[in-house]
Each structure stands twice: as structure tokens, then as C-alpha cells.
Specification:
The complex is a heterodimer of chains A (about 290) and B (about 170). Helix content of chain A is about 55%, strand content about 0%. By secondary structure, chain A is an all-alpha fold. Chain A is elongated. In chain A, helix 2 runs antiparallel to helix 3, helix 3 crosses helix 7 and helix 3 packs across helix 8. In chain B, helix 1 packs antiparallel against helix 5 and helix 4 packs across helix 6. The longest helix of chain B has 21 residues. The chains are: A mainly alpha (about 290), B mainly alpha (about 170).
């Protein structure tokens, strides 16, 4: 399964939103910082903290600018109440929907196998520059050239005689993990199948992932190049949080004063009603 | 489970938003089915290789997260996917350790986590180039490249002062 093909599944022909990108950065950073704290790895903690800060501050800046909502900035310790509330709304909706979808996992392992293979093989159609998925079931079909288009030939001829690509969710044939995919029509498919699957440099075309060393090196450079903006963002977030705290204190003070007024206006809350006398109720109250 | 891995799992769950912990656990269950199902086990084992390459393990977990995300029709929140990925990584490392393929040390776990983090971030498009492009858009004036703001023309008083000085 090609990395870029999986990425294409996530993008699905459309650009990932800024919200998703920043949330991913913040969450990955938070997770890395947590693991770094457990393992005692200072580098991991530092990198994780930087990413969490970038994701959080970036989300806060974008949120203030009104261009993104629902970004979880808590990983950076820079949570605005408004963003947090919006994130809560996003959580409840996504959680309910995801729960329903995930509930089907237990009954569709075979479907997942087909989908996993299709996830690697189907989406090169969305990204014509991406090589096809790697063979995960030992198939020996020779790739035939085909134009890179979104309409995949379902009945592509295969030399091994394996069944052509099945629709999503189809049962995988016994002994083969996943059916052959439309990716078999790409000329690069054979070279990818022969490649070492753990060699990430051979996975994907234009979107091949960087090794983690190079990735974090470039990320640190990015954070350093934009430290002025992030410092400004920290000030904005700090000011907003202070403002939110001041407002909350004001509200609490107001509520306390209102309680005091209510108590003094009506006097002792314990009933002063004495047994009724000849004077009537009012005389009894005054007693 | 290895005490280090158990401690990591507990810390991740504790740090996560408690509202979505049930979603995280469901994602972990689904991920385990992908990892251990007879139909997909070979794929995962092939990805993990001999279990000694942190980059391969991190990439494998990232791909697993991608599968879970697509299977959930892109409704699974990232705030649940990433913690679930860490938990699945711990699960996978525990499996490899019990199989005798690897000894999980703090350094090895750290490297696997870094690999997983970088692959997951890149999977969701969080590359430094993209982030720089986003930051350029929110810089003052929305300028693509940082530059000096245009200077305002001198007003009447300033012009008079300049004339007096000259």
C-alpha cells in the first residue's frame, strides 16, 4: 500500500483543510511530548512541544482571523474558550458519526482487506503522478500501460488469471490478501512490487514521505523562521486568555454582589411568621 | 505488556480529551483487527519487517491510521486518531517483543514515536512548506513574502517641519 495513495485517500482529491493540518500538528506534537516525558527523551519532548505549540498557535491565529474553527489548541497550552467550545461541537458530531462507522469494523475484516488494498491501488487515479500500490499478496501480474485517469478499468487483463479488481468491500479470495487492484495497470506497479516494502524512499512518487530525521529538521527550521509570528501569536493568546479570565472574574463578582443584594433585601430567610394573632397576618409577620 | 509500553499507553489516554476516549478505544479495537486479522496480518507483518527499523514501524502505524480514517468515512477526529496510533504502536511493539524480534527500550520507543509522528503529520499534509504557506497568508497585510509596509506620505505638519528644518 503506497504512502501517497493512503494520503490520497485522506485528501480524496481535495486539499486537506487548514484545520485538519493544524490539528494534526498539534495532536502529533502532544503525543510526542507525552511519550518523550515517559521515556525521558528530551529531544522527543522538545520536538513534540514545538509541534504542539505551532499547531496550537497556528490554530489560534487562524481562529482569531476567522479562517478556521474547531482546532484543538490544548496541546500547546494555549486554549481560547471560543476555540475550545467549537472543538467540543466538532468532537460530539464526529464522535457520533465515527462511532457508527467504526462499529462495522468487527464484521468486515475481509472487506477491510479489500479496502486496504484498494486504498493503495485505487487512488493513484486521483494522483496521476503517484505509483501504484505495492503488491501485498504476492501477485505476479504484469502491469500494462494505461492512461492515468480517474476512471479505472475494472476488468484489466492479468497474466496470472487472478480476478480483476473487485468493488470496495468485496471478499478477498482465499490465500490472497486483497484482490488485484486497478493499480496493476500502471507500468510502475512491477517495480514497486519488487521493492523492499520497508524502504520508504521507494514508496510513492511526488509525495514520498521524508524520513523523520529530515522532517523534523525542516520543521525546526520552519519554527525558527517564524518565531516572530509565533511570539506575536503567544501574546495574542495570552492577552485573550487574560481577557477571558478577567471577564470570568467580573461575572463571578457580579453574581456575588447580586446574591448579597438579594439577601439584604429580603432580610432573614428564616420565616418570621408567628402564630396568627388577633392583629391578623401582618401583625404576625411584624412579631 | 512491557511496563514502559503500559506506562506510555496510560499517559496517552490520560492526556487525551476524556470525551473522546471511547472513540480512541474503538479505533484501537478496529486497528487491532486489521493488525491481527488473517486477511490483513501479512500486510502488516510485511510492513513491520524484522521489527528493528523504527522508520518502518512508524510508517506502518501511520498507514494503519490512514486506513482507519478512510474506513470511518473521514469522520474519525484527528484528536482520537493520533492517540489511537500511539496505542496501536505500543500494541505492535509489545507483539514484536513477545515474539522475540526486538527489545523495546526507551530510545527505541522514542525513535518509533518520532517516525510515527512524522509519517502521520505528512499523511495529513502537515509539511513545513504547507505550514509556511499558511503562515504567509496570516502575516500582516497578507503578503506572500515579508516586506516593508508602505510608508505614508508626510502630512501638513510634517511637511512644515521639514520645510523649517531645511
Amino acid at each position: 500500500m503506497a504512502f501517497t495513495a493512503v494520503a490520497a485517500v485522506i485528501g480524496a482529491g481535495e486539499a486537506a483543510t487548514a484545520t485538519m493540518v493544524l490539528a494534526a500538528v498539534a495532536e502529533v506534537g502532544t503525543a510526542m511530548a507525552v511519550v518523550g516525558a515517559v521515556t525521558g527523551n528530551k529531544e522527543l519532548t522538545k520536538i513534540g512541544g514545538t509541534m504542539a505549540l505551532v499547531g496550537g498557535i497556528g490554530g489560534a491565529i487562524a481562529g482569531i482571523g476567522g479562517t478556521a474553527t474547531g482546532v484543538a489548541a490544548e496541546g500547546a497550552g494555549a486554549t481560547l474558550k471560543g476555540i475550545d467550545a467549537a472543538a467540543g461541537d466538532a468532537f460530539s458530531g464526529a464522535s457520533a458519526a465515527g462511532d457508527a462507522a467504526i462499529a462495522n469494523y468487527g464484521s468486515s475484516a475481509a472487506g477491510m482487506a479489500a479496502d486496504a488494498d484498494l486504498a493503495g491501488g485505487l487512488n493513484p487515479g486521483l494522483d496521476p503522478t503517484a505509483p501504484a500500490a505495492m503488491d501485498v499478496g504476492g501477485t505476479q501480474a504484469t502491469a500494462t500501460s494505461a492512461p492515468a485517469s480517474t476512471s479505472m478499468p475494472v476488468g484489466a487483463e492479468q497474466e496470472t488469471g487472478l480476478q480483476a479488481s473487485a468493488p470496495s468491500g468485496a471478499q478477498a479470495p482465499d490465500g490472497v490478501i486483497g484482490p488485484t487492484s486497478p493499480a496493476d495497470t500502471y507500468p510502475e506497479a512491477q517495480s514497486i512490487r519488487n521493492a523492499n516494502s520497508t524502504d520508504t524512499s521507494l514508496i510513492g512518487g511526488s509525495g514520498a514521505p521524508q524520513g523523520f530525521g529530515d522532517y523534523f529538521k525542516s520543521f525546526s527550521k520552519f519554527a525558527n523562521d517564524n518565531k516572530t509570528l509565533f511570539n506575536a501569536g503567544m501574546q495574542i493568546v495570552g492577552g485573550a486568555m487574560k481577557g477571558a479570565n478577567d471577564r470570568e472574574m467580573f461575572d463571578q463578582q457580579l453574581a456575588l454582589n447580586q446574591q448579597r443584594v438579594n439577601q439584604t433585601s429580603y432580610g432573614n430567610t428564616v420565616g418570621n411568621f408567628a402564630p396568627t394573632t388577633k392583629g391578623g397576618i401582618i401583625s404576625g409577620v411584624r412579631a | 505488556m512491557n511496563p514502559l509500553l503500559q506506562q506510555t499507553s496510560d499517559a496517552i489516554l490520560k492526556k487525551a480529551d476524556q470525551r473522546i476516549v471511547p472513540v480512541i478505544k474503538k479505533l484501537v479495537d478496529a486497528g487491532k483487527q486489521v493488525m491481527y486479522s488473517p486477511k490483513t496480518r501479512g500486510m502488516m507483518m510485511k510492513q513491520l519487517g524484522d521489527g528493528k527499523d523504527p522508520e518502518a514501524i512508524g510508517a506502518g502505524i501511520a498507514k494503519l491510521i490512514g486506513i482507519l480514517y478512510s474506513e470511518s468515512k473521514k469522520t474519525a477526529p484527528i484528536q482520537a486518531l493520533v492517540p489511537a496510533g500511539v496505542l496501536l504502536m505500543c500494541e505492535g511493539l509489545d507483539f514484536l517483543e513477545q515474539a522475540g524480534a526486538v527489545k523495546v527500550t526507551p530510545d527505541f520507543l522514542s525513535q518509533c514515536t518520532m517516525a510515527m509522528g512524522s509519517n502521520v503529520a505528512q499523511l495529513f499534509g502537515a509539511t513545513p512548506d504547507r505550514l509556511q504557506g499558511m503562515m504567509n497568508k496570516v502575516k500582516p497585510g497578507g503578503q506572500e513574502t515579508p516586506g516593508q509596509p508602505p510608508t505614508a506620505p508626510a502630512g501638513i505638519v510634517a511637511q512644515a517641519q521639514q520645510g523649517a528644518i531645511q
